[in-house]
Amino acid sequence: MGELANCRRCGRVFVKTVRDICEACYKEEEQLFEKVYKYIRKKENRSATIPEVSEATEVDENLIMKWVKEKRIHTKDLPNFTYECERCGSPIQEGKVCQTCAADLKKELEREEMIQKISEENRKKQQTYFSVDDKIRRKR
């Protein structure tokens, strides 16, 4: 069973289950999505940018961006449907970061792994010890 929450769009109290908006706002968002989807399905509109689609359909750009990020709108056939990389701000069509930032993040992770591996090896070397019994047994 869901918990009571306020709709983030209209502020009404509703029983929160899967969505963070009430049923009325969800239905309204779905109607807006259909409006945008019908617009971008037309061949002559596929070269439109997000601001152009927003202006033509009177749907907020942030809502369109939300659908792109949720992958409800696929940008494969929409060459000008770009949004900003979350790290550097360069235009991208899929994911959260551009390929350059992804490569940089991968290098940073590999470097951190190497540092941790070296520090772990050094820690193991420092923890090696012999007991007095070991020394006595070796002398015999």
TrEMBL record:
Keywords from the UniProt entry: Cell projection, Cilium, Flagellum
Superkingdom per UniProt: Bacteria
InterPro entries: Flagellar_operon_YvyF
Protein's recorded name: Flagellar operon protein (TIGR03826 family)
